[in-house]
Amino acid sequence: MEELKKAIDIISNLAILLRTSQVHDINNVAVTNLIDKVTGLINDFLKEEKVLQIDLVGEFFYANDTRLKYSIEHLLNFDFLSRELKKRNTGTIVFKERIETQEIKTFVKAFITAGFSKDPFNTMQNSLKGLKTITVDRLKRVKEDEALDMRKVVKKTYFNAVSFTKGIMNKIKAKEAVNIKKAKRIVESMVDLILEEEQLFLGMTAIKDYDEYTYHHSVNVSVLSIALGQRLGLSKKALNELGLAALFHDMGKVEVPLEILNKPTAFTENEWLIMKKHPQWGVKALLMLKNPDPVLIRSAIVAFEHHLHYNYTGYPAVRNKREQDLYSRIVTIADQYDAMTSSRVYSRVPLPPDKALSILIDRSGTQVDPLILKFFINMVGVYPIGSLVLLNTNDLGIVYQSNPVFPDRPKVRIIMDSTGKRTDQTVDLSEKDEQGRFLRSIIKTLDYTKYKINLAEYLM
Amino acid sequence: MSELSTIKDLLQSLIKTRKLIRMYPENNPMYIKAVNDMYEKFERAFQQTSGDIAFQIRQYEILFQDEQVYHNPEKSDNLALFFFKDGIRELKFLKDLGKEELEEFLKILSIDEKELVDDDIVTLMWERDFQNIKYIVDESTLTEDEEYELRATEALMENVTSEEVLLRAYRDALTSETARVPQIVPVEEEDLKALIKEFEKDADPKLPKLVYILSEIIYQGLDKKEFEEFSFIAKSLLEYAIKIGDFESAINIIELVKKAIDDRDIIEEAKVHLKKIIEHAGSTAIIKTLGEIIDRIEIEEKTILTYLGHLDKNAIQPLIEVLGELKTIKARKIIIDGLALLGRRDLQSLIKGLSDERWYVVRNIVYILRLIGDRRAVEYLLKTIKHPDMRVRREVIKTLGELKAPQAVTILKDHLNDPDPQIRIATVRALGSIHTEAAKRLLLQRINTKDFLHRTLEEKKEYFEVLSSWRDEEVTDFLVKTLKRNTLFNRSKNFEKRACAAYALGLMGSKEHLNILKKYIDSGNPLLREYVRNAITRISGTRMER
Prior knowledge:
The structure holds two protein chains of two kinds. Chain A contains 17 helices and ten strands. Chain A has helices at about 1-25, 30-50, 75-85, 100-115, 120-125, 145-175, 180-205, 215-230, 235-245, 260, 270-275, 280-285, 295-305, 325-340, 355-360, 370-380, 455-460, and strands at about 50-55, 60-65, 65, 90-95, 135-140, 390, 395-400, 410-415, 420-430, 440-445. Chain A has a five-stranded antiparallel sheet with strand order 3-2-1-4-5. Chain A has a five-stranded antiparallel sheet with strand order 9-8-7-6-10. In chain A, helix 1 (about 1-25) crosses helix 3 (about 75-85) and helix 6 (about 145-175) packs across helix 8. By secondary structure, chain B is mainly α. Chain B has helices at about 5-25, 30-50, 80-85, 100-110, 120-130, 150-155, 165-175, 190-200, 205-215, 225-245, 245-260, 270-280, 285-295, 300-310, 315-325, 330-345, 345-350, 360-370, 380-385, 390-400, 410-415, 420-435, 435-450, 450-455, 455-470, 475-485, 490-510, 515-520, 525-545, and strands spanning about 55, 60-65, 65-70, 90-95, 135. In chain B, strands 3-2-1-4-5 form a five-stranded antiparallel sheet. At the A-B interface, helix 3, helix 6, helix 7, helix 9 and helix 12 of A face helix 5, helix 6, helix 7, helix 8 and helix 9 of B.
């Protein structure tokens, strides 16, 4: 455990060193102090472990094959290093034996120089050739077959959660006992997979099922909330609590008569009044499930507050305003985003993801918490998964995975090629040619809902 | 020792450690030793097995490298079943296992499964996020509907996107205008600082927030049935609040309910349900929990008394019950003060406690009646005065005195002859507190009996001290006569009596008595001489003070 803390400290300080070196000369005292510090930290680590291998795989850092889970104060540094390593197509840095300050200095110089090179990885590797104690390796791509297997696991977990949610809602309606242990286990599985395969899971939320909207929506809100919670730096246990609270946020809807819930036309004033009762009914449904515990209490709070709005203009109307719970503010954003991008009974035409994001931005500070929204936008990217986009190569595609480092350069699944022929291939918009120019860029977004394009075909 | 023997030994130690961990609290040396020993066993096992140790978990057995190292056909206290039933199929300890992680694992292992209401072993392991203990779980038990995924996938794939649709979309894309793209503002240092503040706030307990939500829900225009459900929820949250020692939240629940009961806008039929919440707050179950909590943890007395002060009379009986079960003086004092608060509103319910089988409870109830000071309790106390336990009788006598119950004098008379000197002294004091003519007469008569001479000096002194509180002519004359009176027999005992009379005159503090007292200032009896001199000093001092 101690070694992992040391590794986190090394990465964090290495990021600070590299960032400082981008603005100051290598001999500047600010840089040399940091070089000394990083050298000391690495050597301290090497006393015990002999080798420190830092790997960047996907969005996660590993130290000697153990994934690093860091607290929020390290977030910016880790993000910076991840972005800079990807720019240099570098995925591995190995430190071994005893490091001298001069060697770290050489590494920093190589890193900075590579940033201006058209072939950054080779530039850096060549600059480090004389060093025995520091080596680098290329960024590894996650193997396609591994990704495929993982996609199957994600899909299974997702649909299991939907099926469970359906069961739980039916049981609450029938006033039957609900298995909370199982709910916890299902959300635990989701948390694990989101921590490992966030993009795959977010992809599942983009597939909307009109017939089973309520259950899919609950799971989608849970997935989006967990992913957002992860971005905010919540612990695993907290992510589980958040995931459960999000999964249960609409439990009050079991009390809404089906003729209202499934009404295809606009609600009457009276029907709206009933619909607006679901937050308070949610509190009741949850607290009547079992004896209270911290998770249930948190879920009940979220159920009550998720339509309250950041400025209390939502419902239910409250007599006294108290600051809304952090989880409620997270779930509100996830709920609004998923609802807007879904086809529901009372709103058959969903909004395209990018449009929904624009609306959320307009609601920042009024309906939704601006701080949490900022993290959400950074998570889903400029072009959220499921967006229909036209590339400068005249290829038409669907955004498949967002890119946290380059938010405007997601992975895209091409569905029509530049000749107007149907095709199926995935491209990464962060890929560059030999001259360092991006191979493809998005030039337009389209409303896929206008065209009955079945996203499940491409995202599942 | 062979590798297999080492592993078998490791598992047996694990079972033994599990028992020890269950028996001793964390700070106990036995507990600490058990953890240390287990850690050493693991270290040795890692050395001998040259690496990580992985167990395959089956229903009734545990395997190591396909060899059985544990077998237990029983369903209870079965290590294999403990893991198997929640889906764990492999358990692996990595060689870097630290003591902290091992201790956390041992804590899970030692949990009484009956206490696991909402969590299973997998959840507990998952929450600990062990770095050096890995496990493989069979997740198939989580699948509700085996066919759901297949059906859902088929349904989602039913409407294949047609070539025509794609072509139309493509053509539109080529000719449409470029849409506005939202700008991404990167997360900055300031955002992280704001987020850290959010986390700090988020660490606050959540129950108070939910109670606030209840206070909002109650005014959301609930109908009768909803009020019934509200009542159920409020009751269950009350129980929870008490269980976790959050008395502030419990008080807030009661206060919001009481406010609603007094609110004209709340429908009358609802108030029946709301009153049930208050009733529940004083129920046997809740009061029992309350007792356990205040015995165990430090909670501000004022807060608990505020809670108890909100309760109805139905709480009195459970509080009496709990009073007899409490282990700490601090907790007993709180309940006594609480019963004094409630007993003022319903003396009859409190009086029922006088029939409790436990003498110490009866004594506490008598004490509470004294705190309340309601004379209606006298008739019941007069019955309790015959209680077989001397400590109860003494408390009753004291209380009767403090309640200044004139009707008690006749009954107290008998207790002046009680075999126990403490009872007799308490009776004398009680008669002094009652302070009626009858009480005075009784004391005077008793002093004049032959038997009185043989009482201890302490008891005699008590009689005269009490008597001095009358300060009337009759008593003054009696004291002067007693001071002067010489006897032929029992002279030393009589000197004690005379000394006590001098003591009483001193207490009365009247200058008029100085002359008579001075006559005995040089008495040959040292006791009388001492008491007379003290009395003179006292009177003079009193006068000087004036």
